[in-house]
C-alpha cells in the first residue's frame, strides 16, 4: 500500500529497478529460487524440473506460494544456453544444478539457424506460456539468462578463455561474438512472451576470474550490446566482490545491479551514484542457508539502511535453504519499510 493506493508487485519492482521508488523497498529474487522444501511441496524436483516445462513452472511458482515473495523466476541453472550451442551436460541431482561435462572445445562455425529451437530453449518458452495462463499478471516474471562471457567459457573451457584474455584476445572476441549472437536471438524469443525482468548472470566475469581491465575490454561491450537489444527491464548479476568493476557494470545499460554480500552497499552507492538500482545482497550461504531468524533480520536491516533498492538473495539459493529464513527476509523488509515510512 502506498498512500492508501494498492500498487501491484510488478509495478513496485519495475519502479524500484528504474530508481523511481523512494518510499518502498520490494523483496524479490533475480537469482535461482528453488529449494528442497519447495521440491517436496510441489512434487516437482530437480533434475526433472529443468527439462519439463510444467514441473519448471510448478517449482518456480512454489517459491512464491511458500515464501509470500511475489515473483516467479526461471530457470534454476545457467547451462541451457551452452547446451543449445552443443555442450554436453550432466543434469545434476535433486540438490545439484546441471553443469557442462565437456566444453565444445572449438569455435562452432556459426550460430545455427533458428537457434532458439535448440536444446531446452523451448522448455523455457513453454514454461512462460504456462505462467502467463496460470499466474496472476501482477506477479513479476524474471528470467535468468547466462551472460556472454560465462557462455563463451562453457564453449571454450573457462580456463582457456581466461588465459586467452591475456594471450589471445582475437579468439576471446570470436567466442564472445558467437555467444552474444546466440543470446540476442534468445532474448528476442523471450521478448515474444510476458517477461518483466531479464537477469543476466555473469559468474565467470567476476573479479576472481578476470581483471577489471579485461572486463572493460571484453565483457562490457557485449553486455552493452545485449542490453541495447532488449526493451525489457534488465538486471546484471556478477558474483563475488564486484566493487572494482561496479563503475563499468553501471555503464553497461542495466537498470539494476545484483550484488553479493561481499559488496558494501554503501560503497557501491558512492560508486554508481543514482545511475542504477542496487539489488541484493543477503548472503545465500552464511545468512539464508546457515543463519537463524536474527541473522536474517540483521542482514536485511543492514542492506536496507545502507541503501539497497531491492532486497534479494545475493546469489542463487542453496537447495537446502530453509523456507523460514526466506520468509524472515520478506517479513523484515516489510516491517522496516513500514517503520521508516
Ligand atoms: Zn552470484
Defining key terms:
seven-stranded parallel β-sheet; binds zinc ion; 12% strand; 9 strands; globular; alpha/beta; 341 residues; two-stranded antiparallel ribbon; TIM Barrel
Folded structure, characterized:
The protein is of the alpha/beta class. It has one domain: Alpha-Beta Barrel (TIM Barrel). Helices cover 48% and strands 12% of the residues. It contains 15 helices and nine strands. The strands form two sheets. The protein has a seven-stranded parallel β-sheet, with helices on both faces. β6, α11 and β7 form a beta-alpha-beta unit. The longest helix is centred in the middle third of the chain and has 22 residues. The mean pLDDT is 94. Bound molecules: zinc ion.
Strand/helix succession: HHHHEHEEHEHHHEHEHEHEHHEH
Structure ligands: zinc ion
Q: If you compute it from the alpha carbons, what radius of gyration comes out, rounded to the nearest whole angstrom? A: 19 Å
Largest sheet: 7 strands, parallel
Amino acid at each position: 500500500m502506498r498512500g492508501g493506493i494498492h500498487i501491484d508487485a510488478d509495478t513496485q519492482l519495475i519502479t524500484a529497478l528504474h530508481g523511481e521508488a523512494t518510499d518502498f523497498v520490494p523483496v524479490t529474487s533475480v537469482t535461482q529460487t528453488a529449494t528442497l522444501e519447495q521440491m517436496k511441496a510441489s512434487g516437482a524436483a530437480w533434475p526433472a524440473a529443468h527439462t519439463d516445462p510444467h514441473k519448471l513452472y510448478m517449482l518456480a511458482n512454489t517459491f512464491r506460494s511458500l515464501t509470500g515473495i511475489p515473483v516467479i523466476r526461471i530457470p534454476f541453472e545457467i547451462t541451457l544456453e551452452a547446451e543449445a550451442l552443443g555442450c554436453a551436460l550432466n543434469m545434476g541431482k535433486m540438490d545439484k544444478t546441471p553443469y557442462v561435462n565437456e566444453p565444445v572445445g572449438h569455435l562452432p562455425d556459426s550460430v545455427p539457424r533458428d537457434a532458439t529451437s535448440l536444446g531446452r530453449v523451448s522448455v523455457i518458452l513453454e514454461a512462460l506460456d504456462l505462467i502467463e495462463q496460470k499466474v496472476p499478471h501482477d506477479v513479476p516474471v524474471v528470467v535468468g539468462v547466462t551472460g556472454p562471457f560465462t557462455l563463451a567459457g562453457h564453449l571454450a573451457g573457462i580456463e582457456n578463455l581466461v588465459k586467452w584474455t591475456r594471450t589471445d584476445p582475437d579468439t576471446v572476441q570470436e567466442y564472445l561474438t558467437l555467444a552474444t549472437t546466440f543470446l540476442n536471438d534468445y532474448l528476442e524469443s523471450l521478448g515474444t512472451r510476458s517477461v518483466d525482468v531479464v537477469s543476466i548472470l555473469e559468474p565467470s566475469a567476476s573479479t576472481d576470474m578476470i581483471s577489471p581491465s579485461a572486463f572493460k575490454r571484453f565483457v562490457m561491450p557485449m553486455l552493452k550490446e545485449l542490453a541495447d537489444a532488449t526493451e525489457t527491464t534488465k538486471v546484471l548479476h556478477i558474483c563475488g566482490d564486484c566493487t572494482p568493476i561496479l563503475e563499468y557494470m553501471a555503464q553497461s545499460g542495466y537498470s539494476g545491479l545484483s550484488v553479493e554480500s561481499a559488496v558494501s552497499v554503501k560503497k557501491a552507492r558512492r560508486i554508481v551514484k543514482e545511475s542504477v538500482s542496487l539489488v541484493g545482497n543477503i548472503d545465500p550461504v552464511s545468512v539464508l542457508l546457515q543463519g537463524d531468524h536474527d541473522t536474517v533480520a540483521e542482514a536485511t536491516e543492514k542492506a536496507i539502511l545502507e541503501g539497497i533498492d531491492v532486497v534479494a538473495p545475493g546469489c542463487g539459493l542453496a537447495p537446502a535453504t530453509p523456507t523460514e529464513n526466506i520468509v524472515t527476509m520478506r517479513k523484515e523488509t516489510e516491517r522496516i519499510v513500514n517503520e521508516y515510512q
